[in-house]
Amino acid sequence: MPRNRPQGSNLRCILIEIVVFVITFVVGGSLALYWCSEEKVEEHDVPPTNLVELPDCQCPPFKLMDQDDIRKNTGGQYLRNLQTWDPMIEHNAEYPCWFNIECRAGLGVSSYFTTLFRSNGNPIYINRVVSNRSIFTYQPREIGDFKCAQHTDGSYQWHFHNYPVTDVGFACQADVDSCHCPYVKIDDQSGARVQERFPGALDQCYLYTARCDVHEFSSEDHFPFLSSEDTIINNLAVSHNIFYDDLICIKEDTVFNWYYSNKKLEDVIIKCGSIEEELEKSKVCQCGAFPVINKVEMLAKYKYYQTRRYISANVGKNSWTPSCKFNITCEEGFKGVVFSDNYDPIEFSEIYVTCTFNPLSNDLHMWIVNSVRVINPAGGCFKKR
Description:
Strand 10 and strand 11 form a beta hairpin. 13% of the residues lie in helices and 34% in strands. It folds into 3 domains: 51-174, no CATH class; 178-279, no CATH class; 296-383, no CATH class. By secondary structure, it is mostly beta strands.
């Protein structure tokens, strides 16, 4: 006859079964978590939320820039302290690379810029809103002469005035600090007269329309110049009533300073004069002067850190003539170099220069050199020794 198992033996078997079950559950659960985590790791192709890709467009996606991105942007670091938020990008599927852009008012902000950033140049202001009103045309905005095109290396890149711009990004940025910036002086003796453009905008100071009182002069060739310690700016507007929409007050950590585009201005004054008197050169198109450098002594007006590589160079013959649109071409062994008040020397074997409309207004013009906006440019052919 079979013998009955002792009760202790039965209890031991029950405990063993429980332990086996627990081990099986834990090991099985760990394997399941491992497999799930492996599957999640494989799903890393999801694009970042701050990238905007245009379907069927062969050009790279845009980036919606935040303050940290701007802080790391070489050409746009001066804008790093401005309140920043995302614009809206609108795309039409019928035209793969067409888009327009709109900035809407931020929290407590009614005056702001729409700004284009890139890694190979300074920012370009696309639109300006003052007191919830676009100063030029309604939003959303297209960007003139901005397109997707094939580069010489075969890749597709965004181009601004027929030259590639890399790592393109956009941002909305507050413009509310101008009343904290240094006083802008008006030289009445020169005939300069100003009028506030938006008297009801409480967050705007020194946003003027400027003109010259031509009754005090025999010539109507006098224009209002925006002058500072080391530069003189004339927008060369279509009319003699000139405004400075690129002038913005920037907070730089603990102080406020005026910037015109990316050029820092100190001791700002509005005064009247002629192109020949103020810039010592003749006007070219609506953009002002573009001097031809034919001797190294002409580099003296620029800062030493910009010119030190060229002071001992040979200056070549200039077979080109400034106009509204031209190429700087040089003889063999020489390279074209463009100097300016707001950017490092631009050096290429061939340089494309154009005088074009400022995106902020068709009444304003600007020089563009290989997609870079330059202030008071001059060019020549150089060969380093």
